[in-house]
Amino acid sequence: MKSVRKLAAVFAALLTSTLMLAGTATAAPAAFDRAATTATAAAPTAPKYFTGVGGGPYNIAVQTARATAYEAAAREGYPAANCRVVRGPIGQQINETYWQVFIEIYCLPPAAPGAGPIIGVHSDKCVDVKGSNTADGTPIQLYTCNGGAAQSWKIHSDGTIRALGKCMDVQYAKTENGSHIGLNSCHGAGNQRWEKLPGGLLRNVHSGKCLDALGWQTGNGARLGIWTCSPTHTNQQWKGAGMNG
């Protein structure tokens, strides 16, 4: 009984501690994707953590903990491919044959219907939220297209361009050439609203300047910003399904 109480305290501490997102993504069985397609709740729009606890022989406990975490995510509409293990497996041995194991996963929301990549004509790389991080101020960059949620964009009727439940934003509402683009909570101001121009340009309403692969850079991690619109400059020309909104 003391061991059980001790385990409960350990798990409680883990759940209330600061969460570390570093770690290697771990693929989930395809069954969890099938479960996600049967979710009845409205499609989620924000990231979320899910926990799973399993009991039994260690290997079985680990499998059960993973299963319960991914099944919880699937019930709320998070595809398994959008989730990764960020904590655990952490186990507590109760007796010679019985373990309890804790696992925590972090899930990104599915792409909005009609969302897709925005691809630079000059670089042939995708507009990407760095590290799939949803914190306000996360840089938006170029990166090799991979079909992930961090590269699934949709232009909404209010002119905002959204991924991971947040908006493409000219940081600090700056208007100077070279001002950086980042991800931010949507608030509808002009520095988050964009106009599609002929030739695949995207012009920011507040600044009147265009989305630009700064310095004509094409490497992974190249920063995006705004610059005076130049319709003949291919580093300001964009294509892909994300431009169809």
UniProtKB/TrEMBL annotation:
The record's listing under SMART domains reads:
RICIN
Q: In what residue span(s) does the Ricin B lectin domain sit?
A: 113-241
What start and end residues bound the annotated signal peptide? Answer: 1-22
CDD domains in alphabetical order: beta-trefoil_Ricin_laminarinase (cd23451)
Note whether Signal occurs among the keywords. yes
Among the GO molecular function terms of this UniProt record, one is:
carbohydrate binding
* Keywords of the record: Lectin, Signal
Which spans of this chain does the record mark as coiled coil? none
What InterPro entries does the annotation carry? Answer: Ricin_B-like_lectins, Ricin_B_lectin
> Does this entry carry the keyword Magnesium?
no
Q: What is this protein called?
A: Ricin-type beta-trefoil lectin domain-containing protein
Q: Which organism is it from?
A: Streptomyces pini
